[in-house]
Amino acid sequence: MADLKTLVMGRKDVADLDLETELPPELMTVNMGPSHPAMHGTVRIVLSVDGERIVKGDIQPGYLHRCFEKEAEHATYTQIFPYTDRLNYVSPMINNCGYAMAVEKLLGLTGHIPRRAEFIRVIVSEVSRITDHLTCVGASAMELGAFGPFLFFLKVREWLYTWLEEVSGARLTHSYVRVGGVNKDLPAGWAEKLDRRLTEMEGVMVEVESMLNLNRIFHDRMAGIGVMTRAEAIAWGQSGPIARSAGVDYDVRKDHPYSVYPEFEFDVPLGTSGDCLDRYLIRVEEIKQSTRILRQAMKMIPDGPWIIDDGKVALPPKTEAYNTIEAMIRHFKHIVDGIKVAPGECYTFLEGGNGELGFFIVSDGTGRPYKCYVRSPSFVHLSATSKLIKNHLIADIVPIFGMINMIGGECDK
Amino acid sequence: MTDVNPNAAKPAVSSEAPGNPPAPIPPAAPLTPAAPTTVTLTIDGKPVTVAKGTNVLEAARSLGLDISAFCYHPGLSIAACCRQCLVSVEKNPKLQPSCQQTVGEGMVVHTTDSQSTLARKQMLEFTLLNHPVDCPICDKAGECTLQRLYFEHDNADSRVDVKKVEKPKVVDLGPHIVLDAERCILCTRCIRVCDEVAGEHQLEMKSRGDHQELTTAPGQQLDNPYSLNTVDVCPVGALTSKDFRFTMRSWELEATPSICNGCATGCNIEIHHNNGRAWRLVPRLNLDVNGHWMCDEGRFTYHELREQRLAVPTVGGLPSSWDKAVKLAAERLAGPLKDPATVAVVLSAQASNEDNFALARLAAAWKAPLYLTARPERGDRADDKLRVADVNPNRAGVLAIAGAAPLGDLAALETGVNTGAIRAVVFLGHDLPVSETALRRLRELDCVIALASHERGPVKAAAIALPIAAWAETAGSVTNVDGKVQRMHPAIDPPGLAVAGWDAVARLASAAGVGKTVAWEHARLVWKDMTAQVKPWSGLPWGREVRPLALRFAGSRG
Question: How many helices (H) and strands (E) are present in chain B, helices listed first?
Answer without folding.
Answer: 14, 23
